[in-house]
Amino acid sequence: MPFTMRPLSLACLCAFALHAQAQQASPETNLATVVVTASGSEQDIKDAPASISVITQQELRQRPAHELAQLLAGVEGVTLNRSANGTPTIQMRGFDQAYTLMLIDGKRVNSSTSMFRGGTAYDSGWVPLDDIERVEVVRGPMSSLYGADAIGGVVNIITKPIGKTWKGSITAETVLQQDRDLADSQKLGFSMNGPLISDTLGIKLYGNYDHRSDSKAQSTFNAGYPLFARTLNRHAGGQLAWRPDARQSLTLDADVSNKTQGMYTMERDAFALRHKGNWNALVTELTVSTDEIRNLKGMIDTQTNPNKSNTFGVNGKASFPVSWGNQFLTVGFDARKERLWDPANLKGLPGVPTTQSSPTTSVKQYAVFVEDEIRLTDRFAITLGNRFDHHENFGGHHSPRAYGVFHLNDAWTFKGGLSRAFRTPTLVQNSPNWGSVSCGSATTGCYIIGSRDLKPETAISKELGIQYTQGVHSASATVFDTKLKNMIDIESRTRDVTLAPGYDNFVGFLPDGRPIFSYQNINSARTRGLEGSWKWQALRDVEFKTTYTYLSAKNTSKAVHTLLVNRSRHNLNVDADWRVNAQWNLGATWRMQSEQPLNAANTVYKPGYGLVDLSATWQVSPRTTLRGGVLNVADRTFDRINASDYSEEGRRIYVSLNARF
User: Fold this and answer.
1) Partners of residue 447 on adjacent β-strands
2) Residue 499 burial by CB count (10 A; 0-12/13-18/19+): exposed, middle or buried?
3) pTM, whole model, 2 decimals?
4) Separation of alpha carbons 559 and 548, rounded Å
5) DSSP tag of 498
6) What phi, psi does 32 have (nearest 5°)?
7) How far apart are CA 515 and CA 494, in angstroms?
8) What is the per-residue pLDDT across 86-123, written as a single tens digit (0 to 9) for each?
9) Residues 573 and 546: beta-carbon distance below 8 Å
10) 302-335 burial by CB neighbour count: b if 16+ within 10 A, else e?
11) Coil/strand/helix, residue 2
């Protein structure tokens, strides 16, 4: 569906371009960007054996966002979506957020067990933006290093380190809606760290509070429900870091979070103890971590059935060079146990004698992995890796990968690889004693249950990319193709008792007549496409950045392939930044999304649209920054069409004040 830029947004972008052409561009020195997620050890991003992007500290400060997911939308290959209540979620290379592994300083986090409907939407928001140093985004499967859930990619949120001197920041922000029937939002966050004993003991503290009330405007799709539901997010945490000597460090992290989206509240407590050692050529890391996620409401609007999930993990790795063959080797292990306590939904089918004596279910798995970077020449390196995972219910699985990086010269780099990834069913999907009401009603709808017959999902992914960096220009383009088998699905269900027996995953009827459906594997799905980026330092003080994703995502299980729902074929982001002088910075962002299907039959579509945001930053003093802007300048709004859709907010103003000390 065609869409156009409004005159105001076009004028702003043209103004940047005309100003850029009026002066001679001035190249700047490109500093190396160091990343850790692609290989498990530090390396220049140009050498990383993966398609990887970094959201920098500067971008975190300049762009208005309450949730990290909103910032991830500017990364090529990543698209922003939202749940029905407005919670931002991401898709990576066409896969929902459940297929993207979320890490916090390398430690995994997963809410899908406690909130099977949209639980992963919470996982990008467990860390306050004030405590984030940078975010590394690896696009494409990374199961060889990280195991299950990394089919779409990996997002590693890296928090601020403890410095040698005391420093900190505090941020206050508000977003004011033009439509006064929609609630405003407020946010307050802080982060501070410094030494307790110089070069030996340090501490970090951080916190965040943001709030938005229920909107007065009602959804036309869900009568009686607010168009945008209430949000209340609270975080607090800290880190204690001890360096007994120059070779090793020990850190203890503690974090508590409380996130409310609509009527659902999730609480998370997390603790981790990590030891890092640098023994000349050998670098080691050992981490013991645990978290508990509590769903205070449960999963049904009209009921209160709390549950909680726990994860316990121990993992370690060692990296070291091997002189023979000019290799760099990383070996490691990972052991994890997940547990769910859910007395309401783990008691068996309603209306029949219970088949589950315990309200708890759990699963254990362990893994060993190895990755070897072989530098064949100064310009060409290949990385070979494999991970063997043993799952309590599904046995052993190998996740190999091979990746090559070739620097033709200082400007041109070619990358490409082949990898295999897998994803095991969650605890609820795999437990036949777990069940929940569905089909729109807690009393007259249908009922869904887990299944022991499920198989793990497996994916084979190929990619080939090229990168260019020279002077004032840097660009990249990557083509990718991922085939997914045994996709786990519960979309196939109905409350119609006549049609229900014809469904492949129909199990039977409850005593009250409601049909029962189980999770099932569907044969296959495929996503492929092109992702690209271009950055142009037009002047020393004027910069343009563009990211684009072309995506073809289809259900290939049947003879006639259909598009996967909630996926846009085209996604484009254009950012323009102008540093007017030492005090002022102006910015504009245009985000375009083409139409997307909203049902499996591809008969209902959400129209495509483009949104423009404008921003300004004033450096009031060396330590105080005032930001403001207008979001969705053209006031383009959309209400939900069906349960798979989401509403888009209209024009609004944001103001933010940041003070550093």
Assistant:
1) 437, 516
2) exposed
3) 0.86
4) 30
5) T
6) -65, 140
7) 8
8) 567 788 998 888 888 888 888 887 656 655 555 555 66
9) yes
10) eeeeebbbbbbbebbbbbbeeeeeeebebebebe
11) coil
